[in-house]
Write a structure and sequence with these properties.
Structural class: alpha/beta
Order of helices and strands: EHEHEHEHEHHEHEHEHEHEHEH
Number of helices: 12
Shape: globular
Number of domains: 2
Low-confidence stretches: none
CATH architecture of the largest domain: 3-Layer(aba) Sandwich
CATH class of the largest domain: Alpha Beta
Mean pLDDT: 83
CATH topology of the largest domain: Rossmann fold
Radius of gyration: 21 Å
């Protein structure tokens, strides 16, 4: 958990945890939820705030199920594709400013899944000069070439306000400093943490998951847990599947997660005639159980920061 100066952050009475419009319940969103729980334990009045662009928001449903207090940030719908991104950010920044004025937070925690996501949250916090802690979840090397100059200037301007920035790895810190032209020593590194209590939640015997999927006890389960996005590299496994299954007949692949490419990859597996060898679990809340049931964990991501799933996989062995 992020450690900040208690006089400037933790002792505030009303804290908002903000994240941009979530399409899935991923690592960044879970991190935001952990902040909400932590601040609540410290006695703060805290709300998880996110943008909801439609009625199908997994984070919205998750908060309702878990009883997590949340608020929806007004969003500028992208109905006109001719509006340039800069003007869209300005509009969204103004909506966020009005939202924060109504909510009157003493401090803000912002969680950004990507460098390109949510600059309007920083801008609004900077305009109102609200004490802010910013958490960068993931920064890719590709951001060095695809981050526009005006985007860099907005971040640098926001950084001059009452903001503390941190990220989850030293590599991320170097990339952020290089892209935004900042002193890297001004960006803190706070690695992700693992909750050892998760291991206690899974005590079922090995082979239980295989039997529930209708797989024989002698089959080896190769598990992947990740969002279904290009970044997570599922396509590399798909490319290798035919050759692997020809050579190793006693293996099956089990994929847990959700995302925008879920249906596409599922249709691809079916078209290859491999749906009896590749099983899609969808979203699972019992990841430690899945890890303990697997014989091999595969994580083919093309870029990542400090993913919790790797700590959990090591702990589950």
């Amino acid at each position: 958990m992020v450690k900040l100066d208690k006089d400037n952050f933790y002792n505030k009475k009303r804290i908002l945890v903000l994240t941009p419009c979530p399409s899935i319940l991923g690592g960044s969103e879970r991190a935001a939820v952990s902040y909400v729980k932590h601040f609540k334990d410290l006695g703060a009045e805290v709300f998880f705030c996110f943008e909801k662009k439609d009625n199908k928001c997994p984070v919205d449903d998750y908060c309702q199920q878990k009883g997590i207090p949340y608020l929806n940030i007004p969003i500028a719908h992208r109905t006109c594709c001719k509006i340039k991104r800069l003007f869209l950010i300005i509009t969204q920044s103004l909506l966020t400013v009005f939202f924060l004025i109504r909510q009157k937070p003493d401090a803000i925690q912002i969680v950004l899944p990507w460098l390109s996501s949510g600059p309007h949250l920083l801008i609004a916090a900077r305009i109102l000069n609200i004490p802010t802690n910013l958490r960068f979840s993931l920064v890719c090397s590709e951001n060095k070439s695809n981050t526009p100059g005006w985007h860099v200037r907005l971040f640098r301007w926001a950084f001059k306000g009452r903001q503390i920035w941190n990220t989850l790895s030293f590599d991320n810190r170097c990339l952020i400093a290089e892209i935004l032209k900042l002193d890297k020593d001004k960006i803190k590194v706070i690695s992700n943490a693992y909750n050892p209590k998760l291991k206690e939640l899974s005590q079922k015997p090995h082979g239980d998951l295989a039997r529930s999927l209708g797989i024989g006890d002698n089959v080896k389960l190769l598990l992947t847990v990740a969002r279904f996005t290009y970044q997570k590299g599922y396509k590399h496994i798909i490319y290798c599947l035919p050759a692997l299954l020809r050579e190793f007949e006693d293996i099956c692949f089990v994929w847990a997660g959700c995302g925008e490419l879920y249906d596409e990859y599922k249709a691809c597996i079916k078209a290859l005639g491999l749906d009896s060898k590749v099983f899609f679990l969808g979203y699972r809340s019992d990841i430690m159980y899945c890890l303990k049931q697997a014989d091999l964990f595969i994580y083919p991501t093309e870029s990542d920061g400090s993913p919790n799933i790797l700590f959990e996989a090591v702990e589950a062995r």
